[in-house]
Amino acid sequence: MNQTVLDALERPLRDLRISVTDKCNFRCTYCMPAEIFGPDYTFLPKGQLLSFEEIERLAKIFVKDLGVKKLRITGGEPLMRKDLPILIKKLRAINGVEDIAMTTNASLLPKHAKDLKDAGLDRVSVSLDSLSDEVFGKINGRGVRVQTVLDGIEAASQFGLKVKLNMVVKRGINHKDVVPMAKFFREKGHILRFIEYMDVGNSNKWKLDDVYTKKQIIEDIHNVMPLEPIQANYTGEVATRYRYVGSEDEIGVISSVSDSFCSSCNRARLSAEGQLYTCLFAAKGHDLRTLLRSDLTDIALADKIKGIWNVRRDRYSEERENNPINKQKVEMSHIGG
Ligand code: SAM
Ligand code: SF4
Ligand code: SF4
Question: Which CATH number fits domain 15-335: 3.40.718.10, 3.30.70.870, 3.40.50.2300, 3.20.20.70?
């Protein structure tokens, strides 16, 4: 039975994001800057990662006892985890899961899209920040070309995965790419979502001045292709939706900085080593791996997790201005956005 468990601010839990690795083949400047995530950086050893069986056990508990309906696989780059379709198949078999999505940089999709679809993956959100090789190569920190990502998108579509795009917009770096990206993906028939550059983690040296806000993004597009706002698809949807006037084509903007949405936040995040985070900007997680590897029953484990959710009061984005600028926060590559 799918239950509803409320946190201290009366928010249910509906969406579980599962990071399957902290490794990535990109070094995006806003996420894993190469000067910090260099050749000597130590990633999690295999024994510290949750196994697919452990992830499956937790996902079952989250769905059956805590009310989760949607699962999202993320990373690091999730396709760096070997045999990922095996995990997808296990998750698909869980009663009550309505949707399984994955966030990916798409570089490995040509190799894996078919197996992922066959295993039961519903959709992918592909990250791409520019259509210029020069700009994109600098942002991804590895000189990866735009065509590599477009090939991944093509493979996903070809095998029947639904595709949306995510573009992180950073002022002075790629804000001029907002309109070309909007035009390109409107023509391709894919929904593009613009993400305000966020102060996740401590590695990216975030500054408020670097944020290109929802208002600016919408104005830029509206000047060329008029937009009108549309209703959210469901409570807790983080993207504000807009439609190009006179059509059904739409875009979304995720405005964690300029217009936060903590009051409807129904997400929990599980890191690759089994730490549960109740906020993207949390300093610390809750160690579920130790609990999983103890002799707790599923019922006892569910009670522990309910206890964590019941006392949740996170609303970092609404309180951003009151937080010290150097507050210790978990890195994005640990919990996957
Ligand atoms: N590697 C995969 C990818 O890039 O799609 C999945 C993990 S990545 C951490 C998830 C999403 O977070 C990506 O869309 C990425 O662009 C976004 N992201 C990373 N750092 C960010 C930041 N500082 N602000 C806003 N979005 C960020
Ligand atoms: Fe890797 Fe995704 Fe982070 Fe870029 S945003 S460094 S692709 S995990
Ligand atoms: Fe949710 Fe934390 Fe983001 Fe607010 S800041 S929307 S509580 S993840």
Answer: 3.20.20.70
